[in-house]
Amino acid sequence: MADALKYLPESYYTRYLSEGAKSRKPSPIRGLFPLEATPGVLSLLAGKPNEETFPFTSMNFAVRSPLDHSVDIPITLSPAQLAKGLQYSETGGIPALCAWLNAFQERVHGRKAHGEGWRLSVGSGSQDLIYKACTALIDPGDSMLVETPCYAGVIPIFQGLHANMVEVDADAHGIKSSTLRTILENWPQDKPKPKVLYTVPYGGNPTGMTASLERRKEVLELARIHEFIILEGKSFEFFSAKLRTDLTVPDDPYYFLYYGDHPRYPSYFELEQQEPEVGRVLRFDSFSKILSAGIRIGFVSGPAPLVQAIDMHTASANLQTASLTQVIVAALLEKWGFETFITHTEYVSAFYRRRRDVYNAAMEKYLTGLAEWDSPEAGMFFWFKLKIKEGEEDSESVIRTKAFEKGVIALPGTSFIPLGAKTAFVRASFSIIKEEDIEESVRRLRDAILEARKEAGVV
Predict the structure, then answer these.
(1) Burial class (CB in 10 A: 0-12, 13-18, 19+), 87
(2) What's the CA gap between 145 and 167, in Å, rounded?
(3) E strands of 341-423, at which residues?
(4) pLDDT (0 to 100) of residue 255
(5) Where would you find the membrane-spanning parts of this chain (predicted)?
(6) Quick one: 215 exposed, middle or buried, by C-beta within 10 A (0-12, 13-18, 19+)?
(7) CATH at residue 269
(8) Which of 44, 268, 347, 446 is the most exposed place for a label (fewest CB within 10 A)?
(9) Phi/psi zone of residue 457: left (φ > 0), alpha (ψ -120 to 50 degrees), beta?
């Protein structure tokens, strides 16, 4: 029997919590919810509406079979499931869904739900949980390390918290751990070191790049030496079982969106088991890219005191994630089981790989010599650098004006630079555009680039 993992004590995390998190009090009502389940207790506790007043009497839906896409699988919520879905429920997630996710995290990342100092909590998408985690960890003026380029959706969170964002460059192999080491080893002695690092190790948005195993290990080592928490951001990569010989331990929205040819590297959440102790990773997962973007179900896994701080925020902000969507997802996952769920993620991964290949072929046909790019290994974006004129580092006008005038729109790279510096990069999404329109969209981008080059005096 393997030795139990050593984990950091609860008291260790007090210094990481923001003043707001420290001052937040438990909900006087929700804190007592578990007592309602005590046998023989008559509850006059919560102001829950009586379920007899709800008009819903049954609910059923169908899902496409991952094994045969021509077959629909009917799923009917039981009376108990429907009752659970129509009522207020636990702040951190309904038990049925949490149980499935706990078991899944053990199968995927080898992390046991008991005895390792971590737990998970369900949120209204990973964005909801990232916001609450950052609010729990960051005070105005606190320094934080941010992988650059960075997912545009989290930058306003960091700005709104008045964090001092410290950019750490990333390239085709993920975050540059050597740059991170240099930043930390030369940190001013009279200034508190950063509490957190935000990074997306699989299929980073916007780059689509995946961090190498060597860099992941170096980042974990630096987290231990310099004592910061890794926010393993916005995950759920799509994964192929063919990359693993042991399906019982398969290997972030983008963890299960991995379709590269290299072996899947362990997540930070899994890899930290090789450290002297665990407890420096908060991992965010989402079903948005796997089941439905609108269902708004994500979950966070990490040190229990930090997840508890997130739950306390939820209890005072929005009480909980919608019970009904949780019940629907739980019913689907229980119907499928682990292996069928993995089969579905393999289908999604193959879908986006095919889209990637079609888009890459169009890029090679129309943008060779006009742009530079690395083909992504995960996700749904191309991140490419425009070649307008030597020294020209601004894609803004080309994309916002010329490209739009040509009938195509993408996102200028400035949106992904935390401190807003100019960049020649552009992010193009290939997820929902029809395959037959991909080539035309890239041809229009080429026309916009050629016009910009002509105006700049480049033949």
Answers:
(1) middle
(2) 6
(3) 371-373, 381-386, 411-412
(4) 54
(5) none
(6) buried
(7) 3.40.640.10
(8) 44
(9) left
Query: Measured between alpha carbons, how far is 93 from 74 in angstroms, rounded to an integer?
Result: 24
Strand order in the sheet with 381-386: 371-373, 381-386, 425-429, 411-412
Can you tell me which residue has the tokens 């769920």? 341
Beta pairing partners, 255: 237
Take residue 3 and report the two structure tokens written for it: 């030795």
121 domain-assigned: yes
Q: What is the chain's length?
A: 459
Distance CA 256, CA 269 (A): 15
Helix, strand, coil shares, percent, the chain, to 5: 40, 20, 40
Phi, psi of 219 (to 5 degrees): -65, -40
Confidence at 274, pLDDT banded by 50, 70, 90: very high
Q: Is the pLDDT of residue 175 over 80?
A: yes
DSSP type of residue 153: T
Q: What is residue 134's three-state secondary structure?
A: helix
Nearest to 231 by CA among 174, 300, 281, 181: 281
What pLDDT score does 246 carry? 32
CA distances from 36 to 97, 281, 334 (A): 20, 33, 26
Q: What is the 3-state secondary structure (H, E, C) of 206-264?
A: CCCCCCCHHHHHHHHHHHHHHCCEEEEEEECEECCHHHCCCCCCCCCCCEEEECCCCCC
Note whether 255 and 202 are within 8 A (CB): yes
| Both structure tokens of 22 | 């420290």
Residue 212 belongs to what domain range?
Answer: 10-50+84-343
**Residues forming a β-bridge with 171:** 174
* Among 115-129, 175-189, 203-217, the least confident range: 203-217
Q: Cα separation of 175 and 200, whole Å?
A: 9
Coil vs helix vs strand at 381 = strand
Q: How far apart are CA 66 and CA 344, in angstroms?
A: 5
Measured CA to CA, the distance from residue 62 to residue 328 in angstroms comes to 11
Average pLDDT, whole number, for the chain?
Answer: 90
User: Which residue, 286, 316, 343, sits at the end of a domain?
Assistant: 343
Residue 379, pLDDT score: 84
pLDDT band at 1 (very low <50, low <70, confident <90, very high): very low
HSE-CB of 91 using CA atoms within 13 angstroms: 23
DSSP 121: E
Position of tokens 């708004």?
296
Q: Do 160 and 235 fall into the same domain?
A: yes
Whether residue 260 sits in one domain with residue 125: yes
Structural domains of the chain, count: 2
> Token pair of 212, please?
């190498």
